User: Fold this.
Amino acid sequence: MTWILGVNAPPTGWHDSAACLIDENGEIIAFTEEERCNRHRHSLYRKPLGAARFCLEQAGISPADIDVVALGWDSEQLYPRRFAGDADFLAYAVGLDFGDHTPEVVRVPHHQAHAASSFYASPFSKAGVLVIDGHGENESSTIWTYEDGAAPRLEHTWQRTASLGYAYDAASTWLGFSFLNAGKTMGLAAYGRAAQLEVEPLVDLTPDDFRLAVEPLTERRGSTTADEIKEHYDTVVGRWRERYTKIAGADGPTAPEERLTEDPNAILVAYTAQRLIEQTVTHLAALTRKTSGVDQLCLSGGVALNCSTNGTLPGPLYVPPVPHDAGVALGAAWTVRPPTKHTGPLSPYLGTDVHHRGHAHRPAAPDTSDLVRTDLDIDELTTLLLEGRIGAVAQGRSEVGPRALCRRSIIAVPNTADVNTRVNTVKNREQWRPFAGVTRPAYGAQLWEQQEHLSRYMLGAAKATELGRRVAPGVVHIDGTTRPQVLHGDEAPAVGAALDCMERRGAPPVLLNTSFNDKGEPIVNTAADALAAFRSMDLDFLVLGDDLYRKPNRTGGTR
Assistant:
């Protein structure tokens, strides 16, 4: 058996480190982000040691069994002569003890790893693939053609400092957010869309190209190091921030983060950046289809997390559950060994089982003596939800990626707008932040515009219908959209069963779904994480595996 461990790892992959294990057929055995294991959000500058150990445990193998480690970056270009050899690199980047055996190290260019993670996860046998992020080694956007059984073709590339990601990072930091909180910028931009703001266009589109309002720098091609890239990033982001300052007439918001919707300048900057992304990505998506000669389109790279943009693109369109940098762990592995079976969209439930405690370290089962436990009964769970309770679910193997897809989720009935306020309070979030809805496919067709694949992973905004606005106002954002998820079969058993039970009782079968984590925390991973979050947050119940937990003072009645 051949084993390939894909990683996003420092020093190249310094945020969202991850590990993914595939076998000789390209089948995924396990895939998780390091933040889920070490409990540090985005796992900044941390090697994916916990994630790699989990992957090996899931397969029942040791580091000595690994044949190839595939990295989703060309570390040799970015950090020339930093490491004495592959063994030195692996010790720094991954941290596993390979003993006397040093696996082969394959360094996959960053955008190729992104492209592979999207195409091979898709249901398409041929597709144009568009990758847009902050930057790879030498590029910011690329167009590829992928086809089963054929080598991928790089069709078009744009230089690193012509970066849409840099432009959006600048808006996010102008607003006072981290560049890792671009989702907040997207959520705030919806207030500009709702107000039908007229914004300054920041891109000039031509038939086969685009030109940004902030000109790219002159770059050396093919040999730029990480230090030079960082210098370029700081320069270009700084120029974009100057542009937003000129547009707003201010160098930052005047309102605090929790009240940014009261600041017209903050909304203007967020919506201006959002329109830049939407206009340019729409153009590049059409160019990708033209270049590849097929309608099937895959997106990847950090910009592909922009749900509002994704939702405006026509299908057939596929975005994987891991379009961000963690996804290159999978893409690098699949570049070495593409999957032999490529027939349907990827299941995201590839992470840690909620009751997993590992082979090497087995702490005692969490103490639950302070909680009221009963066997999970779906009728009882449905009653709690229909009474207006807010609870959480942690069941089975966790979903990979930044979206909670009902195996590590907070859920509530969204039948009033007030539930949005209540859940934001529970999560210690800004009150202007939106939530997503989850339902079954048939009912989803009545609630919002249809998406063929985006709603599988909650990666596309969709306009709510009149029925959707009426029965689920708690998941309809200010601009009339939601970021829907549809559940198929028993993908998420407790939530799916609760939706079915709600329908049998004559209630609209739709729930608010958001990630199960407190402010600043990664999504919960294990039972211990779930119980700690349940105790610290103002939640009414917790579905943990096949058990239902409540707090002693919340065992009955309505809120």
